[in-house]
Amino acid sequence: MAKRVFEKGSPLRFVVTFLTLFLLFYYFNIFFFGITSPGNHYSDFLARHLNYIQALRTFLLASTKTVLSWFGFTSIYNNTEILVMGKGRLILIYSCLGLGLMSFFSAFVIAYPQKLKSKLLFLICGIAVIQVLNILRFVLLAAFWKQRQGLILDHHAIFNIIIYVIIGLSLYIWVKSAERTSAGHAEN
C-alpha cells in the first residue's frame, strides 16, 4: 500500500517532493543570506566568492539602470540601491529579489512528473520571466513611485500577488499541455 502511494507520478509523492524542495530552497536562501551578511556567523569567503544573492541583486540593479536609461532617466547604483536623478532612490532588500517566488516555482517544476528537457526549458524560461517582471517593477517604482501620506499601498504584496497568479496560470498551462502530450502518446 505505502509503495503505491509513493510510486512515480502519484499525487502524494508530488506534494511531499514539492514541499520538501520548496522548504529546502527557501530556507537555504535565508541561511545563505545570513552567512554572507556581516554579523554573527559571517563567512568572508562565501560573501566574496560565492555570493549568488549579491550577484542577483547587482544584476537587477544594473538591468534596472539600463532600462531606465532607455527611457531617458539618469541613474546610478551601488550594492543595494539605485538613485534616479530627480526622482528618488529605490533600495533592494532581500525580499525584493524574488527568491521566495523562484523557490516556489522551481520546487513545483522539479517535483512535477515530467520529462527532464521540458522541466529545464520551463524552469529557465519561468525564472527569466519572473526576473524580467521584477526589473519592470523596479523601473516603474524608480521612475514613478511617490509615497503619499495616508495612502497605504504595499507594492511588494501587490507584485507577489500578480506574480503568483502568473505562475499559477503558467503552471496550469504547462501541466495541461503535459497531460495532452502524454495522452497523445498513449493513443499512438
UniProtKB/TrEMBL annotation:
* Keyword Transmembrane carried by entry: yes
Provide the topology term for how it sits in the membrane. Multi-pass membrane protein
Recorded GO MF terms: peptidase activity
Q: Spell out the GO cellular component terms annotated for this protein, sorted alphabetically and separated by semicolons.
A: plasma membrane
What processes in GO biological process is this protein linked to?
proteolysis
Q: Does the keyword Protease apply?
A: yes
Question: Which InterPro entries does the protein's record reference?
Answer: Exo/Archaeosortase_dom, Exosortase
Q: Which residues cross the membrane?
A: 12-35, 55-78, 90-114, 120-145, 157-175
Q: Which domain of life is it from?
A: Bacteria
Per the UniProt entry, what species is this protein from, by scientific name? Mucilaginibacter ginsenosidivorans
Q: What is this protein called?
A: Exosortase/archaeosortase family protein
> Where found, per UniProt?
Cell membrane
Instruction: Return the Pfam families for the record.
Output: Exosortase_EpsH
Which key words tag this protein in UniProt?
Cell membrane, Hydrolase, Membrane, Protease, Transmembrane, Transmembrane helix
Q: Which NCBIfam families match?
A: exo_archaeo, exosort_XrtY
